[in-house]
Automatic annotation (TrEMBL):
The gene is gpmA2. GO terms for cellular component: cytosol. Keywords: Hydrolase. The keyword Hydrolase applies. It comes from Enterococcus florum. It comes from the Bacteria. The lineage of its organism: Bacteria, Bacillati, Bacillota, Bacilli, Lactobacillales. GO terms for biological process: negative regulation of glycolytic process; regulation of pentose-phosphate shunt. The active site is at residues 11, 88. This is Phosphoglycerate mutase. Substrate binds at residues 10-17, 60.
């Protein structure tokens, strides 16, 4: 049986990413630079064979996947599925606010003075989720256990199905906090991350019911795609 590997890409840079606004279940399209960055990633992944592709149901993830598949030699033939379980966290009434506002409120909810103080400690995703629920005046934010169930089940189901079908590589587009959260569920020693780059690739292998982390925040595919374009322009 071929090894099962998930290549999980953070979606391309969007309008809200550029404006530094909170973007969970709310959605904005990729910018021109965001689309170009994902095109580079797609070119960098050209030599990586994939059996199928998945993205979250958010527009920015779907747009990202279409660009990736458009640059891959087998992209037109890859089965592509949309799975809402791998979408970003819901931030409730904090959606659309400036990042600085949310990361200014959450430390105070958790009794820290600043965002820097928050991340200087061993803060957990469970504590952050609880703080978001506490700060959400609309009562829309997801409780920790609900996020944990949907994210874990979503990625595990993808991996299990691929393993049962003989293994191979799966191309996935998801979101920054969701990917970082998954990494922490696989390995509890992983820190809370809020800095996964747009277009970064995070590789996770799956075998006999166990995940293992192979790469985090990898931008080598993006850089390889840039070099391909540069050579073509010479």
């Amino acid at each position: 049986m071929t090894e099962t590997s998930l290549y999980i890409v953070r979606h391309g840079k969007t309008m809200f990413n550029t404006l530094e606004r909170v973007q969970g279940w709310c959605d904005t399209p990729l910018t021109r630079n965001g689309r170009q960055g994902i095109r580079y990633v797609g070119l960098g992944l050209q030599d990586t064979p994939f059996e199928e592709a998945y993205s979250s149901d958010s527009g920015r993830a779907i747009e990202t996947m279409r660009i990736l598949l458009g640059e891959h030699p087998e992209g037109k033939n890859l089965p592509y599925h949309v799975d809402p379980r791998i979408r970003e966290w819901c931030f409730g009434s904090l959606e659309g606010a400036y990042d600085a506002e949310m990361w200014g409120v959450l430390p105070r909810v958790l009794d820290f003075k600043t965002e820097d103080d928050l991340f200087a400690t061993e803060v957990t995703f469970e504590e952050i989720a609880r703080a978001i629920v506490g700060a959400d005046t609309a009562s829309w934010a997801e409780p920790y256990e609900k996020i944990k169930e949907r994210v874990w089940n979503g990625f595990e189901d993808i991996a299990q199905r691929r393993e049962k079908q003989g293994g191979g590589n799966v191309l996935i587009v998801s979101h920054g906090l969701t990917i970082a959260f998954l990494l922490s569920l696989i390995d509890t020693k992983q820190p809370v991350r809020a800095n996964l780059l747009n277009g970064s690739v995070n590789r996770i292998d799956y075998k006999d019911g166990e995940f293992s982390i192979r790469a985090i925040n990898d931008i080598s595919y993006l850089e390889r795609g840039k070099s391909i374009v540069s050579k073509d322009q010479e």
